[in-house]
Write a structure and sequence with these properties.
The structure is a single chain. By secondary structure, the chain is α+β, with helices and mostly antiparallel strands. The model is unreliable at 382-391 (pLDDT under 50). Strand 1, helix 2 and strand 2 (44-49) form a beta-alpha-beta unit. The radius of gyration is 29 Å and the shape is elongated. Helices cover 36% and strands 19% of the residues. 33% of the residues are buried. Helix 10 (272-285) packs antiparallel against helix 11.
Length: 477
């Protein structure tokens, strides 16, 4: 039985995957029963009657007749459930509690329909495909609801990430960590942390689930022949998100606008919101049961592909894609929702499309079979570069350029450095890899020589690593 303090704590945190508020008994009592059924099909939850949508305790009177009507309606759920129904006085106002535990005989049905919890909402599923998906999930249990017996809260919990979540979710600092864990149902009744809780709040979830990481790959050109950068980001899901976003930012064009005396505004080549929506959806909806796959971000010269294990959930029909939402990992989804990183209505796909169209980029391509892939086309920068950069020098000009460099240089330019300068003069878009291949040295050696030439003000890089160009600085410039 919940105490007044525990009820206040739940109210302060607001509605979510495990909590639903109603200011009064609805005229259709079946609405209450639907919530009960959904909680039983999920991880359990608490329905508080006498609390409004603004998280304010208003209080409510429920006489024996209404209570009996609620109990009779709940008896229509099959298999039978026996939730706790009781009233608690909180600061002089009566709040009625319906406490539902996760059912052990899933699926529970009401009038032939299955109700499931998706974030802070209850969803009715009736189609054959949706039911099949639910039965599959019931047989193996949602991955994020399963126990992680090896996790030790005293050693493995990321306290910084936990406190960051508390702040972002607007949870009072006066509520204890233990109470938050209980309210969010991050553990099973025996106190064991759930997989989803480990992924969201663990220091190193990859120690328990080795593929629960994001791999970021940057390729030379438009094929996978040559890898220029390969990073793997682990840690909590939000840590992975922030690290991956920073990595992507470093691989695409980002310009800045300054308006008045305010801070400068970042303008990403592909709108930042596109990556935010895609990455968070990948982290929330990926199939963590697939131990052979991980989220990947692949950056090419002409496109970017973001892929995660698990195709379109069968509960979502192709015609509903982009308009409805259904998560493989309701606990994780609910936690993202509490910090305003996702929205339940499935509007993320529309935001991605609209953001790309607004900046003149092609609509994304979605592949939903087997793996879920988002393909983002990059805009060709060749025409922009040609108007900005100086003309590339022909080989006939090389003797003159070389003589000028000799006069400018305050050190003896070695053979490799001369080759690098020549390649840059003839082709301002020469890549590190191409220069290494032409000269016959390692890419690391090319990079070290370039740093020296930059330091001596003999060459500069204009623009980003991905779409900029080299410029050889002669005396006249």
């Amino acid at each position: 039985m919940l105490t007044p303090d525990e009820i206040e704590s739940i109210v302060t945190q607001g509605e979510g995957y495990n909590a639903e508020f109603k200011v009064r008994i609805p005229s259709k009592i079946k609405e209450v029963t639907e919530e009960v059924c959904a909680f039983a099909n999920a991880a359990g939850g608490v329905l508080l009657i006498g609390v409004d949508d603004n998280n304010e305790i208003k209080g409510v009177a429920i006489d024996n007749g209404k209570r009996s009507a609620i109990q009779n309606s709940i008896r229509e759920i099959n298999p039978p459930l026996n939730p706790k129904i009781y009233g608690v006085e909180v600061k002089g106002k009566m709040v009625w509690v319906i406490e539902v535990f996760a059912g052990s005989q899933k699926p529970y049905t009401l009038s032939g329909a299955i109700y499931v919890r998706q974030g802070p909402n209850t969803q009715k599923i009736t189609s054959v495909e949706q039911m099949r998906d639910f039965f599959q999930q019931s047989d193996r249990i949602y991955f994020d609801e399963a126990p992680c017996y090896e996790f030790d809260i005293n050693q493995d919990l990321d306290e910084v990430e936990f406190e960051s979540f508390r702040k972002d979710a607007g949870i009072s600092s006066g509520i204890s960590k233990e109470q938050i864990i209980q309210n969010l149902k991050l553990t099973l009744p025996n106190g064991v942390f759930k997989n989803g809780s480990v992924l969201f709040f663990g220091k190193s979830p990859e120690a328990f689930f080795d593929k629960a990481v994001i791999r970021c790959l940057y390729f030379e050109g438009n094929t996978k022949t040559h890898i220029l950068d390969d990073k793997v980001f682990g840690g909590s899901l939000m840590h992975q998100y922030h690290q991956a976003m920073q990595w992507v930012k470093g691989k695409i064009d980002v310009r800045y606008e300054i308006e008045g005396s305010g801070p400068r505004k970042e303008i990403w080549e592909i709108p930042e919101v596109v990556f935010k929506e895609t990455l968070i959806n990948s982290l929330a909806h990926r199939d963590y049961y697939d131990k052979g796959g991980r989220i990947t971000i692949e950056v090419f010269q002409d496109k970017i592909e973001i892929t995660n294990p698990g195709g379109l959930v069968s509960a979502i029909q192709p015609s509903d894609f982009g308009f409805k939402s259904h998560s493989r990992n309701p606990l994780i989804f609910g936690l993202f929702e509490r910090i305003d990183m996702v929205e339940q209505v499935g509007s993320g796909i529309s935001r991605i499309r609209e953001s790309l169209i607004a900046v003149g980029l092609p609509e994304p391509v979605f592949k939903t079979i087997g793996l879920f892939t988002v393909l983002l086309k990059r805009q060709s920068k060749s025409s922009e570069r040609s108007s900005e950069r100086s003309s590339e020098r022909s080989s006939e000009e090389w003797p003159k350029i070389k003589e000028t460099i000799k006069e400018k240089a305050n050190f003896k330019v070695n053979k490799s450095q001369w080759e690098i300068i020549k390649l840059m003069a003839e082709n301002s878009q020469s890549t590190i890899y191409e220069m290494a291949e032409n000269i016959g040295i390692s890419t690391r050696a090319v990079e070290k020589n370039i740093e020296r030439l930059k330091a001596e003000n003999l060459i500069i890089r204009i623009g980003s690593d991905t779409s900029g160009f080299w410029k050889v600085l002669t005396e006249k410039e």
